[in-house]
Design brief:
The chain is of the alpha+beta class. The chain contains three helices and five strands. α2 crosses α3. The structure holds ligand LPXRUNBV. The ligand Nc1nc2c(c(=O)[nH]1)N=C([C@H](O)[C@H](O)COP(=O)(O)OP(=O)(O)OP(=O)(O)O)CN2 binds next to α3.
């Protein structure tokens, strides 16, 4: 038996974060509004042919350290899940047209965070019996603009 018991005399709750990026295009445009209204609300972000972003995401899990492995969750496994669920779905896509989960909404960073939360929350349900939950989806749309969603 390894001597990791000392720090694990009691259950330890911890947060683990993996960062991932993808490039995508979008247009902020609500078909319920006129072109003028869209331009007033979304400005240059409503330009007809859209524009691109280098999105950076921080995905944080929360739970109890496994006393056998010393992990909350294997980060290699989290990397694979994020590649399957996020990179494959969003990278080099146009969010208004190419991503089924975004087609009925204006692809703001807020709604992108909610959609990504729902995708990952579903995928991670298989690990709930290990007391692991999704804690936060944080998205940087630009170097200066970020959104955090905690599932509420
Ligand atoms: N609440 C939100 N506001 C805005 C969103 C959004 O998703 N949620 N998105 C945009 C645009 O997509 C836009 O591209 C961001 O524009 P801007 O603020 O100009 O981006 P920068 O950080 O690069 O701007 P600087 O000029 O460097 O400050 C707009 N609003």
């Amino acid at each position: 038996m390894l001597h990791m018991n000392a720090p694990l005399q009691r259950k330890r709750k911890i947060y683990v974060t993996r960062t991932i990026g993808f490039n995508a295009a979008h247009r902020l445009f609500n078909p319920d509004f006129s072109d003028q209204e869209n331009h007033k609300i979304y400005g240059k972000c409503s330009n007809e042919h859209g524009h691109g972003h280098n999105y950076e995401l921080e995905i944080t899990l929360y739970g109890t350290i496994d006393p056998q492995t010393g992990f909350l969750f294997d980060l290699k496994q989290l990397k694979s899940i994020l590649e399957e669920e996020i990179t494959e779905r969003f990278d080099h896509k146009h969010l208004n047209f190419d991503v089924r989960e975004m087609q009925d909404c204006v692809p703001t960073t807020e709604l992108l965070a909610v959609v990504i939360w729902d995708i990952l929350d579903l995928r991670l349900q298989q690990f709930n019996n290990r007391e692991i939950t999704l804690y936060e989806v944080k998205i940087y749309e630009t170097g200066k603009n970020a959104v955090r969603y905690l599932g509420q």
